[in-house]
Design brief:
The complex is a heterodimer. Chain A is an alpha+beta fold. Helices cover 38% and strands 24% of the residues of chain A. In chain A, helix 3 crosses helix 5, helix 12 crosses helix 13 and helix 13 packs parallel to helix 16. Chain A is rod-shaped and about 180 Å long. The C terminus of chain A is likely disordered. By secondary structure, chain B is α/β, with parallel strands linked by helices. Chain B has a 5-stranded parallel sheet with strand order 2-1-3-4-5, with helices on both faces. In chain B, helix 2 runs parallel beside helix 3, helix 6 crosses helix 7 and helix 6 packs across helix 8. The radius of gyration of chain B is 18 Å and the shape is globular. The chains are: A alpha+beta, B alpha/beta. Chains A and B meet through helix 12, helix 13, helix 14 and helix 15 of A and helix 1 and helix 8 of B.
Chain lengths: 742, 235
């Protein structure tokens, strides 16, 4: 793997930065929430303490109410909440005062299609000490009044109420209207009117239906209230129960009266001192029924998934205006903390009943502190804080215990706007910033890595070049030589190394010459002494020794000559005088000379055309070079093998190739072949003439002196080696009029 | 009277070897180890022949200096350079200073002695005129082995060194016949490596070309040797 790629991979670890930031945010969030939860729990504890410690009669009554209220009522049933009326009510069929004062509004849809606008009904309650006021707005495209003139009973629109009175007696009231106006309705089935059993009201037609405003004596509906709307259309067919109150049973049984929860001022007073703006205080009894709630206008929403038609979910969905992708990303980032709350701690069964783990714990007498992300399906709405996506809610619950019996609990819900609330923006910022930082770091690393690897490459190149060059000349590389880091040091060390090697090589090159010079004198002393000795009258016994000494001396001299040869040649090459010469003539001479010397081998000369292949140079040197090549070729060519010189004219130069059949060059050898002291001959110490691997080095020197290129390679088709040279051609020749076979 | 040979050589043992060999042959030998003593002594009395080592101890060019001085004192004194330096450059500068021959130290003693004999003979021939060997004429070339003189085209006298003379002699004896370097070295009694022959041939050619720009009688046969070109007129 290249250095750059390694660095890129390593730099990917910078991605831990945003991850760490996320983790940090989570931790911070957790800590802040923890402290908020504790403080909220403290508040809850204080409240519970105050509630239980206050021994005034009023409080005792309230606590008694709390215990007795809504006992054993099935939690799946709806409870209507009747809050105290805020203004004196006028029964006139107009809903102005209702709307403005923001009573709890119950909405009903057509049981088949809630999108049908003209099949809706809205119901609101409020209570005074003696009466319950209710308004029911029914959407109906066509109102069919009850006509009593005919004998035949025609279908007409009416509403049937059923109530359970203070004596647990069921009563039915049917309300139909001939025309808008005040109404007085008696319970059906009663033979004589009773004033305290009459519902008075007002029928008012509206643009899209009609509205009923009712005043009901409280005892009449003390224990239950239900209604059915009958909508008869023009076809004359009565549609029974076309508007239905949505209940789990979802049937006509809706006429089953619902419990009406009256606001109990005494219970409400229990929490009255603790009302604060942003904290929702919910007091429940031990069954989980909500006894009082500081945020009555925005009740808990039921979010049971099997009840999609339930009313207020509309507004809930529309209020979720966060970017889905961002939210998703955020959730993914905060996955860990979110995951804890996939199980809802607080389940809203209906608007007035809670269950779930919090309630269970609470009724065991335990305190609870937890939180729920606003993104969770359960929505806790608090005053001034209704946006679903804007944060979390922290929840603290404390049981109300009297005489070691849990009689209820207080639940505080507070929006927690700390970090999670900012998270969507902040996270995005943090993520973007981290990405920018990471990208910047990545690119800086990349640039640095590129620069670094460039320098290392340069160093490598420098070493390579120094190794391949015949002379080690340290180049001054500004990127390396000026730098004070390790790579610069390495460069300088290599420079020193090459300098040493250069000195050493220089010494080695001079060594043969020096040696041959220095040894020549002692050799001459030996030689002359031996000669002197020979001129004396030696005995026959002594003579062979003299002969041997002379032979040995001769051999030494030959070795010396060979040693010095390259050096002499280098010197003579540097100062040779150029003249015009014919490559063809030299080749011809040499080929015939070698053919004569080695008749067992096949020498060939292939010259294309009649030209003489004139170049500028030293004929002796070139002859010497070709001799080296030929004798080299002779050594490696088996008997009857071919040695062939081919001369060819190219555009600007003459190419000379020498092929010899026989063994091939070892792999990778062709580059080194022309270097000094490189020999591919088998070690042959018995040889008379020493092989110092100078032959092809001399060839290279001569080629360079003639600006000729040289190469050696294995022949592709035949087994053998091909040496190729190209000499710059001399265009004009003073011999051009001479016959080519000089 | 004994011929007087001066040997200027810094190596004592070599000097003694030469002296003893030459004395055995009947020469009077005086030996010197450095330039100053040699010149001060030789100035008194010139020898009949001087054998000079080029490098005299630390005096690297001392031999050349002595040669230059001796040549000033005598035009005819035979001078032989004997040196361990055997590059073309050394040979050429030696010969340019007017030395009659330039020999390397690995030249064998008998060969050296033969050279000396030949030089003395040429010296004698300059004074006397008894032709012991036939003069060789090859076309335009006339060689006198007695006087060691070379004449080209009847009028141009080629001033050759002893080695050059014998190389030329060997070539011209058998025109058209190729002589390889070894043969030429044997003929000239030189024992150096072959490229010295090339240097001598080159020098010879130059000398001829100096007097006759058309000269091309010495032909190179690459890989084999050299031959005296057969003159079409001569054959």
């Amino acid at each position: 793997m290249r250095l750059k790629h390694q660095l890129i991979i390593i730099s990917l670890f910078t991605l831990f930065i945003p991850w760490t930031a996320g983790e940090f945010m989570k931790e911070l969030e957790f800590a802040l929430r923890q402290s908020a939860q504790s403080s909220l729990l403290s508040t809850a504890r204080a409240m519970a303490q105050l509630i239980t410690d206050n021994r005034s009669d009023f409080h005792q009554q309230a606590l008694q109410d709390l215990v007795s209220a809504s006992q054993h009522y099935p939690p799946e049933r709806t409870v209507f909440q009747a809050n105290p009326c805020r203004t004196p009510m006028t029964i006139d069929g107009y809903a102005d005062e209702w709307r403005e004062l923001g009573y709890l509004e119950y909405r009903y849809y057509h049981h088949l299609d809630k999108n049908i606008k003209d099949r809706q009904a809205h119901l609101m309650f409020c209570s005074t000490p003696d009466h319950i006021y209710a308004t029911l707005h029914v959407y109906d495209d066509e109102i069919l009044p009850k006509t009593t003139t005919d004998q035949d009973i025609k279908p007409y629109d009416f509403i049937r109420f059923n109530t359970v009175d203070a004596h647990q007696q069921s009563l039915i009231f049917e309300i139909a209207s001939n025309a808008p106006g005040p109404l007085r309705i008696q319970a059906s089935g009663l033979s004589e009117p009773e004033n305290d059993r009459i519902i008075s009201g007002f029928w008012q037609d509206t643009i899209n239906g009609y509205r009923l405003e009712l005043m009901i004596p409280k005892p009449l509906i003390q224990h239950g209230f239900g209604f059915i709307i009958f909508d008869a259309d023009n076809s004359g067919e009565a549609r029974f129960g076309s508007m239905l109150k949505k209940l789990p049973s979802n049937k006509i049984a809706i006429s089953e009266p619902e419990k009406i929860q009256f606001s109990n001022p005494s219970i409400e007073n229990l929490i009255e001192p603790f009302k604060r703006l942003r904290t929702r205080i919910v007091l429940i009894n031990r069954e989980g029924w909500i006894q009082t709630d500081t945020n009555i206008q925005q009740p808990f929403l039921i979010d049971t998934p099997e009840d999609p038609l339930f009313s207020n979910t509309d507004s809930v969905h529309s209020s979720n205006n966060a970017h889905p992708y961002l939210t998703g990303f955020y959730r993914w980032l905060m996955a860990e903390s979110d995951q804890l709350h996939t199980d809802n701690p607080l389940i809203v069964n209906n608007q007035h009943h809670l269950s779930g783990k919090i309630i269970d714990d609470l009724m065991q007498g335990a305190t609870v502190q937890t939180w729920a992300p606003s993104l969770s399906p359960t929505l806790f709405q608090t005053p001034g804080y209704s946006q679903r996506s804007s944060g979390a809610h922290i929840i603290a619950a404390y049981p109300i215990i009297i005489d070691n019996i849990v009689i209820g609990g207080i639940i505080l819900i507070e929006p927690h706007k700390a970090i999670l609330s900012l998270a969507n923006q902040a996270t995005l910022k943090v993520i973007l910033l981290s990405l920018v930082v990471v990208l910047a770091i990545l690119s800086i690393l990349l640039v640095f890595a590129t620069f670094l690897s460039h320098r290392i490459r340069q160093l490598n190149h420098y070493i390579d070049r120094a190794l391949t060059q015949s002379e080690l000349k340290p180049d001054n590389l500004p990127l390396l030589s000026n730098s004070r880091d390790e790579i610069g040091d390495l460069y300088r060390s290599f420079g020193k190394l090459f300098e040493r090697i250069e000195q050493y090589t220089h010494y080695l090159k001079l060594l043969p010459k020096t040696l041959s010079h220095e040894l020549r004198t002692p050799l001459a002393i030996v030689e002359s002494s031996l000669d002197n000795l020979a001129q004396l009258n030696l005995t026959e016994i002594a003579k062979p020794y003299l002969q041997r000494a002379k032979r040995g001396n001769d051999r030494q001299r030959k070795i010396l000559n060979t040693l010095g040869e390259a050096q002499y040649l280098e010197e003579s090459i540097h100062k040779f005088e150029t003249e015009e010469l014919s490559l063809k003539k030299i080749c011809q001479d040499l080929i015939s000379a070698y053919q004569e010397l080695h008749p067992e081998k096949q020498f060939e000369l292939d010259t294309q055309g009649d030209q003489g292949f004139f170049i500028e140079g030293s004929p002796d040197l070139l002859a010497q070079m070709l001799e080296k090549l030929l004798s080299n070729a002779v050594d490696f060519t088996p008997d009857a093998g071919i040695i062939k010189i081919t001369l060819a004219a190219r555009a600007e130069y003459y190419s000379l190739t020498l092929f010899n059949s026989g063994s091939q060059l070892p792999v990778g050898f062709s580059d080194k072949l022309f270097q000094s002291m490189i020999s591919r001959r088998p070690d042959d110490s018995a040889s008379e003439t020493p092989h110092l691997g100078l032959g092809l080095y001399i060839v290279k020197l001569i080629c360079e002196a003639h600006q000729a290129s040289y190469s050696a390679e294995n022949h592709t088709q035949q087994s053998g080696v091909k040496f190729a040279f190209s000499f710059p051609a001399k265009t004009e020749s003073r011999y051009k009029d001479l016959p080519s076979n000089l | 009277m004994k011929r007087h040979i001066a040997i200027i050589e810094d190596e004592t043992e070599l000097r003694n070897n030469y002296r003893e060999a030459f004395e055995r042959q009947g020469y009077q030998v005086s030996t010197f180890a450095d330039r100053t003593t040699a010149l001060s002594s030789l100035e008194q009395k010139l020898p009949d022949l001087a054998i000079i080592d080029v490098r005299l101890g630390t005096d690297h060019e001392g031999g050349f200096e002595i040669c230059r001085q001796l040549r000033q004192w005598s035009k005819t004194l035979p001078i032989i350079f004997l040196s361990a330096l055997d590059s073309d450059l050394d040979i050429i500068s030696g010969l340019r200073l007017g030395a009659d021959d330039y020999l390397t130290k690995d030249m064998s003693l008998p060969h050296l002695q033969a050279r000396i004999v030949a030089l003395f003979r040429r010296l004698d021939a300059l004074h006397e005129s008894n032709f012991q060997e036939t003069i060789i004429e090859r076309g335009e070339l006339t060689l006198d082995p007695n006087r060691l003189t070379v004449v080209w085209k009847g009028s141009f006298k080629i001033d050759s060194s002893l080695t050059e003379f014998w190389i030329l002699h060997a070539l011209a004896m058998r025109p058209g016949h190729v002589k390889n370097r070894q043969q030429l070295m044997d003929a000239a009694n030189i024992v150096v490596d072959e490229h010295t022959v090339t240097a001598h041939i080159k020098r010879l050619r130059k000398k001829f070309l100096l007097v006759d720009p058309e000269f091309d009688a010495i032909e190179t046969l690459y890989g084999t040797g050299y031959r005296w070109r057969v003159d079409p007129l001569d054959s």
